[in-house]
Amino acid sequence: MNRSMKSAAMAASLLALLGCAGAPIAPVAGQGPVAVAEIGSFHTGGRSVTLSGLPKKEVRFTPTSPPTLLDPNGEFEVEQMYTQYVKLAPQSRRARYPMLMWHGGGLTGVTWETKPDGQPGWQMYFVAAGHDVYVSDAVERGRASWARYPEIFKSEPVFRTKKEGWELFRIGPADSYDSAASRHAYPDTQFPIAAFDQFMKQGVPRWVTNDEPTLRAYDALVNKVCPCVITVHSQGSTFAYTLASRYPDKIKAVVGVEPSGALDPDKVDVAPLARVPLLFVWGDKIRETPRWQSIQAPMKKMIAAVKARGGQVDEIDLPAQGIRGNSHMIMMDRNSDQVAALVQDWLVRRGLATR
What we know:
Elements: H1 3-17, E1 24-25, E2 34-51, E3 57-59, E4 68-70, E5 74-88, E6 99-102, H2 122-128, E7 133-137, H3 162-168, E8 177-179, E9 182-183, H4 196-200, H5 211-225, E10 228-233, H6 237-246, E11 251-257, E12 278-282, H7 290-308, E13 313-317, H8 336-349
Parallel strand pairs: 6-7, 6-10, 10-11, 11-12, 12-13
Antiparallel strand pairs: 1-2, 2-5, 3-4, 5-7, 8-9
Helix pairs in contact: 5-6
């Protein structure tokens, strides 16, 4: 998709978001335009919690408002997650099942939306390719909301520095980030480095004690929306593979974009995963990064175990295919459409979408 087509797609999407049902979205790879039938959102998961015994305090909700006695005791809804969906008109739908997009650690569903450099992201790409797309903010992230600590969330939030984001996401090598004024990227990086600070605005706190409620909320989402295909990034893969193993009849495929959370076949029966087609997409510089080699190793162990049980497992190793410079944030890289096309081709070959 060239720049003019992308601009047209963004404009059409904006019209749709403003409520123009049926607004056309520009095509992908020469396909005809698609029409949006519905855009909406909902929450899944969560539970009611009652707090008591906390002290009251006086607050002002605006500078000119009178003082209010704030009572933090009472009932609350907590540990829910948020999902926004874009549904296509039937004549535009070319995928057999909706695609659920799940983000990684310290991030939200913005991962899949407009890229930090202003170009359309994978949400737009796969909508234009004929998929209904559901983008989530998991428990504790974005529009899913937070809960009190330590009464409900049991640990303090963790925040990612720019240095960690730059180096862990393989935009630059180890010790390549001193400050915003002193950092150097890999010479062949596909990440739009001029937009790195804009990307870091997406960062949100994460808690290391919320896996159980997050899994429950994703479970509720799967049971509400699926059968489906899940496209998952990084930390979110822990939940995707767990639920694919739990619901191999509902989850028709999992596309893991640099997944970082595996099932351990020594502790978990991965045989049900053999019923779910799996695709793994790997970027560049993993072999040069010891931290990433240790992250990838459990995934490779899981892949081998699923294959040994007859599973349908494919891997796209981008540098091995001559596609160099992709970061951990593949869906935000300059060549993200090229990689999305490889994913779409795989879905077509698996009979999950048509051209």
